Amino acid sequence: MVPLGEVCTPAHRFTEPTAGVIYRQLGVRLWGEGAYEREQIDGAETKYSAFNQIAPDDLVVNKIWARNGAVAVTTAENAGTHVSPEFPVFALDRERIDPRWMRSITKWHGFWKACDGKAQGSSGKNRITPGQFLSVEIPLPTLVEQQALVARLDALAKKTREVEKHLDAAERHADHLLALRFRDLIANAPRHSMAEVAPTVRRPVEIDVTKRYREVGARSFGKGLFVKPDFDGADATWQKPVWVRSGDLVLSNIKAWEGAIAVADDEHDGCIASHRYITCTPEPKQATPGFLAYYLLSEEGLEQVGFASPGTADRNRTLSLGNLRRIKVPVPAFTAQQTFDRLQSDVATLKAKHAAIREANAALLPATLERIFHTEATA
Predict the structure, then answer these.
(1) For residue 188, what are the CA distances in angstroms to 11, 296, 330, 331, 360?
(2) What is the mean pLDDT of residues 332-360?
């Protein structure tokens, strides 16, 4: 373990901002996510008297957010950008530390914790000073060992990216299959109004101040329903809530045009929704809620919902009950809809499995970094 001051030195490439000259700016993301190029700025627009120019493989620190991992090693693409004095810049000693090793360290939570410890007790915003930053200790094996470890980390990162690409491709193919089956299914299907196939049903809730309730909401862009934390009836802040039952087609009347449309399942049965939600119950043997939701979330369906939700401002685009009832939807054979719903269920199951794989995949590299740097730090 050695202090950063042993392997890097301040890089002073300051220039005075000139009016009329456009400067590329560099930012640093939190949690070791690297540097990025921000918006450009005219020299006349900055409040700073100096900019520091960035070179490849610089170590750049955000004074305020270093405690949250806002430290990065720059790339060749970042060269020529500028930072304010709020972002101290250091040049790495390439004979002692490989920039890729330092880049890996910036992704390690032990490094963030060390920066946080140094920042405590400074200004109100817990800025870390350059001196404090240079006193942070990092694990430093030999250059050869660093390079060997980095090569293995790079190989692991490449494999995780390949897994993500494979999952993305599989999901694109599944979604494409659904779209093709749906297109064929509705090609010659008769059209009926929502009032005929899925009339609105309102089940008023009489709030009991002595009871607790579970509330649901609908996410935009077809992301489904979610359950909010339980609350006491005495804390209810809105009037005329409605009961939700499994199998309901649930629409937000202010966000339906944005895809806040979903099917309630057993998890949502017995929950309540605010007066801003519309519940529809498909007629037996005529339409399934899953099929109707898929149509309403399709490009054609959302266009109809948009027309039925007049208004200009975001929250003023309200879907009225009358307009919803007049929307015409395709109604193929009921058994065909059921078959399509089973396909939708298969695709949802696939995506759920992929989500678990993605979660494990995302945790793999951080866990490997923790194991490597913890081993080095305690060796």
Answers:
(1) 70, 18, 9, 9, 44
(2) 96
pLDDT 10s digits, 48-96: 999 999 999 999 999 989 989 999 999 999 999 999 999 999 999 999 9
Residue environment code for 239-249, b if the CB has 16+ CB neighbours within 10 A, otherwise e: eebbbbbebbb
Q: Are the C-beta atoms of residues 289 and 265 closer than 8 Å to each other?
A: no
Which residues are CB-neighbours of 190 under 8 A, at least 6 positions away? Answer: 330, 331
Give the integer Cα–Cα distance in Å for 112 and 74. 18
Residue 175: other Cβ atoms inside 10 A? 12
Residue 122 confidence class, pLDDT cut points 50, 70, 90: very low
How far apart (Å, rounded) are the C-alpha atoms in residues 364 and 373? 14
DSSP secondary-structure letter at 215?
A: B
- What SS3 class is residue 27? strand
How far is CA 194 from its chain centroid? 34
Helix (H, G, I), strand (E, B) or coil at 194: helix
Q: Report how far residue 290's alpha carbon sits from residue 258's, in angstroms, rounded to the nearest whole number.
A: 18
Separation CA 134–CA 115 (nearest Å): 10
Q: Please give the CATH superfamily to which domain 2-140 belongs.
A: DNA methylase specificity domains (3.90.220.20)
Q: Which of 73, 86, 81, 88 is nearest to 12 (CA)?
A: 88
Q: Tell which CATH classification among 3.90.220.20, 3.40.109.10, 3.40.50.720, 2.60.40.420 matches the domain 191-330.
A: 3.90.220.20
Domain boundaries, the chain: 2-140, 144-172+332-379, 191-330
Q: What pTM value is reported for the model?
A: 0.75
- Is pLDDT of 209 > 90? no
Query: Could you count the other beta carbons within 10 Å of the beta carbon of residue 124?
Result: 5
Residues constituting the chain: 379
Which helix (H) or strand (E) segment is 214 a member of?
A: none
